[in-house]
Amino acid sequence: MAYDNGEQVFNVRSTDYNGGAVGDGVTNDAQAFKDALAAADAVGGTMFVPAGTYLIQLGDPATDPLWETISPGRYALLRVTTNGTRIQCDPGATVQVEASHIFQTATDTEPASISYLVFLGASAAAVTRVALEGGRWTWEAVAPAVLQESNPGFNSFFALGGYYMESVIRDCEFDGFPRGLAELGSLVVDGLRYSYNLYENVRAVNYGGAGGDNWMGCQGGTTIRGGVIQSKRTYQSHGIYYQLDRPGVVIDGVEFRDIRSGGKIPIAHHGTSGTRGYGPTVTNCRFVDCNSIENGSAPVGSAFKPYGGTAILGCTFDNSGYPDFGGITFTRTRGASVTGCTFIDSVVTIAPESEGVELDATCEFEGSAKVVLYGSAANNVIRGRFLNPEAIPISVTGTGRGNVVEGAQISIDLADAKYTTGGGAIAPPEAAIRVYPQGGTCDVRGGRISLQGHTAYSSIGIRTLAGTTSVSIHDVTFGSDSTTQGWAVIRVDGATVGPVRIAGCFEDRPLAGGVPVVLPAVNGPQMGGANITLLDNTFVGKLNGVTGVVRAERNLFGGVPDALDAGTVTTAQTPNAGPYREIRYTLGASITLNAPANPYRGAHLRFVLVQDATGGRAVTFNAVYKVNWTPDTTGGRRNVIEFVFDGTNWNQVSAATGL
């Protein structure tokens, strides 16, 4: 049925146009198409293409009269020059293009040329409100065409392009074209260029090669909505090519597939390197198997590499982006946001000079998906949910300052069948978060890290590495299902420079039979390195490797209260400096207080020594205690003395007697 827009309709099958197009897939209908569109374009009407298979055979533009010269080196078969002209195809219409166009190589001396199946506008003069709707358009190179896979400036063949604005391309499929759509015309406002075109439900499959560098190049204000973009995979072609100085590009609901050759990627930019520019808004898109270069080389590249500020919402990245690069790679990006996206075996990379990139807590990461921040990237925020990751979920390093990992939810079940610990082939990640800024700063705050199914003290929640500078870890909750085996919820490696501040962290593993779990001293946080401060933390495992602790206050290590009532004692006692700040002994006999176990620099211990009713009980302190007091040994009296550890001795800081 013809498209009726209240204007004149010109049917390509009408005998008025070179006897009418036949649509049998054998007869060359090129001239009928040219004549019908010329008639429609003369009045701004509609060319209608009924159901059928229409063959269009084209030769070299230099000799084939079917071609029209737009400007030197630029040719078109079909051309629209009038505002409002439309090409409307029945859903059952297929236009099959066979071109013997000679594609030159970089060594040819003939001038380069660009050809279009449909060209909109005159040379540098734009048309508006034109439309191409419906139909399946295919392209095939036939002899004597010479195809080449490089130097796209030579004889590129476009499905459609030209100087057009405020126009619509919808419900079309383009199959096999070297290149797709090229917006050449634009409106300049305040030095910025716009086209305001709409591409809706356009399918582009098997594109690329023969001089193709991208499927589509767009100006500002353009919207691409729905549809599929799928490469041939063996040629070098980007998907959508946006301009850094063209704001207002929206890409919504597009599925990108198999764009993985020659370093080309689904969404790429054009502009001067180092220009921050304007990034597109990308929403509800899906990227599948878009990991660049597979022609015998190691894969590199990303599914999306925004240089300017951009917003990415509700997208899925599935096996897209090489692990060392990313499903999304932010480079020199400012003010970008990622919200509600799912990453499956795909990586988010925040690269040098990026600033103000924010990953929302609604982002989910599966399989080998991870976030990597490095170099001079600064003032970025990483959030998200990670379930049974196959790689370290979050890694932060470099010289950038002000980076934040906030509210991350990371759950690792070592009994999962995919891990070697569960009988599988994949080694579990070394740590949930690895943070080692070297000259930079990082703040890890909030969130939860959960480790299930572990049987050995080898897993790490948050880890710093050698050379780490200025890390703050606070208000992070840790969880585990083991009541017999601890884990290094936080590990500060020995060569850490610091300062490292750990505050308000909490391990919430359930108690065993209602009794506080107390694990061996080696099964808890590891504090190597230097310049470490511990404040208001509660861990089930006891503190170990404490050489780097310079200050520790109000911490609970070992999962028991910091005030311990040891009851009535009659023999020598060895207090535990790890989990306790205050220990109460009721003296049933004279005793000796041995040197505390698990001491660390800055640890405080307060002893409340209570005489039984008999009284006269003496306390002998080990030589590591530096004592200067005279206790009251009257029956029922309390004496309180407090010490702080300087790394060698426990120095008395206060005492109260006869209470």
TrEMBL record:
<dbReference type="InterPro" id="IPR024535">
    <property type="entry name" value="RHGA/B-epi-like_pectate_lyase"/>
</dbReference>
<dbReference type="InterPro" id="IPR012334">
    <property type="entry name" value="Pectin_lyas_fold"/>
</dbReference>
<dbReference type="Pfam" id="PF12708">
    <property type="entry name" value="Pect-lyase_RHGA_epim"/>
</dbReference>
<protein>
    <recommendedName>
        <fullName>Rhamnogalacturonase A/B/Epimerase-like pectate lyase domain-containing protein</fullName>
    </recommendedName>
</protein>
<dbReference type="InterPro" id="IPR011050">
    <property type="entry name" value="Pectin_lyase_fold/virulence"/>
</dbReference>
<feature type="domain" description="Rhamnogalacturonase A/B/Epimerase-like pectate lyase">
    <location>
        <begin position="16"/>
        <end position="57"/>
    </location>
</feature>
